């Protein structure tokens, strides 16, 4: 296997030859913590352009579709799930098309005696990407490593993703009749997509007076694309980086060409790693899609789901009336605050769909006061039931997390560390949420002790 720095330097040379840009004071290094990385050789000023990728070098769904159809002698209408599959008749997703396109590069590398298809234009780019043995997402974990995720939501997500991608891989082989499009190759290309994709709205020049195309295309559906050269930079949270879509001067073209660039808004001293920016992501998303975690991660969450199957009609109707969804994924953040929508759904479920505020308004003052007292007592009891049930759910999740296996056998040290950081973040959030619930229970018990000693009209 060639040196990763050399592979990436070949990509940069190719990028520049195609009209792209890579800052002359940026250099590649293999960092012990972040792997292949870009560092500054000299101080860089504000508004420096780290890298530019011409629009026509992007790996897009449209480019992939055209290449696939030309090579396989198919029409776009043929790129559908075949009869007998789970999604029979559905069009291929953007991921399937781009993965097929990238995979066909490997297929033709295995056919040295056949002419290289002119539509396969990203051989240098694909060669620069980390080989499968260097990929660290959970779909590359062995069974012993997967056991580290026991008790977490992530384990189920890994299993679901493997099932989904495996089915997609089988469809590619069937429709394109290429046995070289193996599961291993599909897994690698799909992982590249999950960890490196950018939104296609970047491939739009801004309207007059706008800095970036992002602001002008929020109303359009964005598709995943790959941007050779731009994805060399590691991502970090809150970096002073602008994604700039603009006409860019190129040394090999007489006129500026449409390009997407990474531009820093702040100075960078020499010998500093240069990062791209990304939005807030919890560790389960980072680990599943990118293969790493942050320690600590202020954007971490715990996802909660309720068992919503076979709800009584009255409960279903009341949830619909209130605009609530029992099947929703509820996020508990670092502060441990329970989402209001989760509490409201649980109130409806535990009350059997009865409106907790429904009671007859009696004309008699005493009867009305008595009804109000009974209603308040009922609501207090319901709230205690909700908090008790929720506390039981969280306690069960905590127990599963704390009892999961420590990992035995062939387990990589970096995998052990990543899983431990992820799980500890989940445990910390659950403990904080449990504290919040306990505090709330104590407040309600105090109110019940103070004001629920007996009905005032009956005393």
UniProtKB/TrEMBL annotation:
Gene3D superfamilies tied to this protein: Rubisco LSMT, substrate-binding domain, set domain protein methyltransferase, domain 1
Record SUPFAM superfamilies: RuBisCo LSMT C-terminal, substrate-binding domain (SSF81822), SET domain (SSF82199)
GO cellular component term of the entry, any: nucleus
Keywords associated with the record: Methyltransferase, S-adenosyl-L-methionine, Transferase
MF-aspect GO terms: protein-lysine N-methyltransferase activity
GO BP annotations, alphabetical order: methylation
Record-given protein name: SET domain-containing protein
Organism the protein comes from: Cryptococcus amylolentus CBS 6039
């Amino acid at each position: 296997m060639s040196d990763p720095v050399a592979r990436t330097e070949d990509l940069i040379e190719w990028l520049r030859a195609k009209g792209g840009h890579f800052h002359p004071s940026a250099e590649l290094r293999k960092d012990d913590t972040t792997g292949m990385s870009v560092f500054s050789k000299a101080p860089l000023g504000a508004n420096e352009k780290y890298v530019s990728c011409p629009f026509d070098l992007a790996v897009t769904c449209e480019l992939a579709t055209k290449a696939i159809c030309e090579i396989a002698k198919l029409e776009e209408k043929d790129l559908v799930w075949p009869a007998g599959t789970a999604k029979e008749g559905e069009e291929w997703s953007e991921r399937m098309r781009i993965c097929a396109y990238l995979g066909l590069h490997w297929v033709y590398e295995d056919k040295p005696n056949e002419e290289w298809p002119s539509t396969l234009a990203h051989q240098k780019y694909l060669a620069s990407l980390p080989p499968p043995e260097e990929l660290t997402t959970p779909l590359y974990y062995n069974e012993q490593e997967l056991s580290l995720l026991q008790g977490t939501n992530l384990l189920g997500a890994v299993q679901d993703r493997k099932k989904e991608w495996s089915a997609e891989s089988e469809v590619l082989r069937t429709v394109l009749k290429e046995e070289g499009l193996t599961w291993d190759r599909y897994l690698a290309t799909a992982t590249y997509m999950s960890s490196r994709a950018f939104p296609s709205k970047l491939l739009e020049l801004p309207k007059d007076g706008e800095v970036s195309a992002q602001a002008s295309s929020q109303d359009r559906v964005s598709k995943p694309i790959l941007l050779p050269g731009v994805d060399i930079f590691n991502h970090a949270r809150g970096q002073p980086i602008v994604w700039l879509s603009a006409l860019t001067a190129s040394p090999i073209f007489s006129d500026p060409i449409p390009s997407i660039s990474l531009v820093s808004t702040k100075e960078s001293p020499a010998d500093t790693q240069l990062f791209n920016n990304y939005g807030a992501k919890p560790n389960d998303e980072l680990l599943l899609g990118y293969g790493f975690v942050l320690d600590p991660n202020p954007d971490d969450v715990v996802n909660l789901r309720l068992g919503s199957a076979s709800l009584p009609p009255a409960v279903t109707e009341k949830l619909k009336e209130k605009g609530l969804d029992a099947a929703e994924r509820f996020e508990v953040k670092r502060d441990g605050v329970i989402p209001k929508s989760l509490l409201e759904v649980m109130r409806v479920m535990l009350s059997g769909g009865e409106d907790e505020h429904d009671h007859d308004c009696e004309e008699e003052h005493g009867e009305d006061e008595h009804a109000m007292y009974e209603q308040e007592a009922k609501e207090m009891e319901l709230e205690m039931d909700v908090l008790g049930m929720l506390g039981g759910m969280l306690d069960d999740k905590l127990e599963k997390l704390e009892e999961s296996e420590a990992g035995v056998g062939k387990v990589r040290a970096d995998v052990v560390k990543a899983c431990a950081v992820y799980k500890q973040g989940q445990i910390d959030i659950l403990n904080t949420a449990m504290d919040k619930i306990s505090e709330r229970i104590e407040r309600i018990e105090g109110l019940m002790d103070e004001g629920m000693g007996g009905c005032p009209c009956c005393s």
